[in-house]
Amino acid sequence: MSVATTKNRLGLLSLVVSVVLVLVKFYAFYLTRSQAVLTDALESIINVFTSGFALYSIYLASLPKDENHPYGHGKVEYLSIGFEGGLILFAGGYIFYSATKTLLHPHVVARPDSGLWLLAATAAVNLGVGFVLVRAGKRLHSVALVGDGQHLYIDALNTIVSCVALALVFFTNNVMYDTIAAYLLGLFITVNGYRMLRKSVAGLMDESDVKTIRSVIQELQQHRQPAWIDVHNLRVLRYGADLHIDCHVTLPYYFSLEEVHSEVHRIEEFIQTRFEVDTEMFVHADPCTFAACSHCHMPNCPVRQHPFSREIPWTVANTVKNERHQLAELE
What we know:
CATH superfamily of the largest domain: Cation efflux protein transmembrane domain
CATH class of the largest domain: Mainly Alpha
Number of domains: 2
Radius of gyration: 27 Å
Strand content: 5-15%
Strand order of the largest sheet: 1-2-3
Shape: elongated
Distance between the termini: 56 Å
Number of helices: 9
CATH architecture of the largest domain: Up-down Bundle
Order of helices and strands: HHHHHHHEEHEH
Structural class: mainly alpha
C-alpha cells in the first residue's frame, strides 16, 4: 500500500469516527442539558469539519509537482492545521458565552449518569483513534494526520473533564461543577487553538526547521571531507512531508568543473539518503581564497599559502549565515 493511500484511509477513518461521535455527544447533551457536555459536543463538531479538511489536504499534498507548484502541494497541510485552529478559537469564544449564560441563569442537569456512560465510551474511542493517527502521522511525516490525532487526544481529554463534571453533579447535586467544567474546557481549547494557528503560520511563512537543520549539520560534520572547506547559507524548508535543502559549499578554487560537479553531487546524494522522506537538495559551489588555508586540511594542496591551524566546526550559528565562516575578517 502506498504512503498516499495509507494517509487517505487514515484521514477517512478520522472523518467517519468524528461524525459518529458528534452524534453520540449531542444525544448525551439532549439527555442531560449539561453545559460541559454541550462544550464537548461543539468541540467535536470541529472534529468533523477539520477531519474533512485534513482528508482533502492529504489528498492535495499527495499530488505530484506541476508547473504551478514546483515544490509540490505539501504546504496545504499547514493550511489544514490553521483552519482547525481557527475553528477551535471560534468554538472557545462560544463556549465562554454559553457558560456565562448558564452561570447567570442556572438550570438543572438531567440524567447525568446516562450522559456519563455515553461520554466515557466516546473518550475511549477518541484516545484509540488519536493514538493511531499520531503514530502513523509521525511515521509518514504528515503534519495533517498528527494534528488531527492530537485534536482527538484533546477531544478525549475534554470528554474526560465533562465526565468528571457529570459525576460531581450526580453525587453532589450541585450544577456549578458543570459550569466550572465548561469554563475550564473553553480556556483549554482556546489555548490549543492558538498553538495550532501558531504552528500553521510558522509552516506557511517558512520558519526554520531547527531540528532538521541540526540533523543536516551533524551528518555533514560527521562525514566531512577535506575538499568541503566550508558550508554556509544552509536553509531547510518543509513542504508537508517533503524537505527542500540548499546551501553553499566552499571547494578548492583549482578544481575542474567536473571535480566540482562530482563533489556537489556527492553531498546531495549523501544528504538525500539520510532522511526517510523525499528530500530535494541544491548545492551552490564557491571557490576558496587564501584566507581559508589555515582552516583547510586539503592534502597536497598545490596553492597553499598558510599552514593548517585548526578546523572550524559546523554549527547552526555559522552554517545558516550567508558568509564563509570567519573568513571575511581574515581576507
